[in-house]
Amino acid sequence: MGEMFCFQCQQTAHNTGCEGRAGVCGKKSDTANFQDELTGALIGLARAVRKTQPTEKTDELVLKGLFTTITNVNFYNDTICELIDEVNSIREKLCPEAENYDVQKIWNDNEDIRSLKSLILFGMRGMAAYAYHSLALGYKDSQVNEFFMRDYAQLQKKVIWKNFWHLY
Ligand code: SF4
């Protein structure tokens, strides 16, 4: 694997993955790696929420964070890092023992697990885009937010088949 890894969209290099100093879309490797860190921090937050209680802020952060990592949405390292700090700070207050997840584990896992987890992750990013826009317009749904927290937290698990079938 090169300086980054991203294969979340149809522009992906050679139809396999963007791995160099920048993706086909122009996303630089440092931005891609910050987005991975944000993804892992959000999994940590989802785990913390599962052990405690969601709040309006945690619901908003998960949707905003997932949306931030979609293709061409945000390439600004400063704002991504601010979001990582905010997510980590709230996770720490909620449940210090809830750990963040290293997304590299997904990229380096065997191809079946990588494919399965990526499919779920990218699907959730897409869903979050709609949910985040709805939130901006004043609409929210506790069942939708619960779905994000429950299933996003599962991405760090080795066995997620149960959730996969639950999702589809
Ligand atoms: S989002 Fe950008 S870096 Fe990721 S696969 Fe698409 S073109 Fe490549």
Structural overview:
The protein is mainly alpha-helical and 168 residues long. It has one domain. The protein is built from seven helices and no strands. It has helices spanning 29-51, 56-68, 77-94, 104-107, 111-136, 142-153, 161-167. Helix 1 packs across helix 6 and helix 2 (56-68) crosses helix 5. It is globular and about 40 Å long. The model is unreliable at 159-168 (pLDDT under 50). Iron/sulfur cluster binds at residues 6-9, 11-12, 18, 23-25, 27, 71.
Secondary-structure map:
Blueprint: H1 29-51, H2 56-68, H3 77-94, H4 104-107, H5 111-136, H6 142-153, H7 161-167
Helix pairs in contact: 1-2, 1-3, 1-6, 2-3, 2-5
Q: Give a list of the ligands.
A: iron/sulfur cluster
Compute the average pLDDT: 88
Multimerization status: single chain
Strand percentage lies at: under 5%
Tell me, briefly, the overall form.
Answer: globular
Helix content: 55-70%
Total domains = 1
Structural class, please? Answer: mainly alpha
**Rg to the nearest angstrom?**
15 Å
Structure summary, number of beta strands: 0
What is the structure about, briefly put?
The chain has 168 residues and is mainly α.
Name some characteristics of this structure:
168 residues, 7 helices, 0% strand, disordered C terminus, binds iron/sulfur cluster
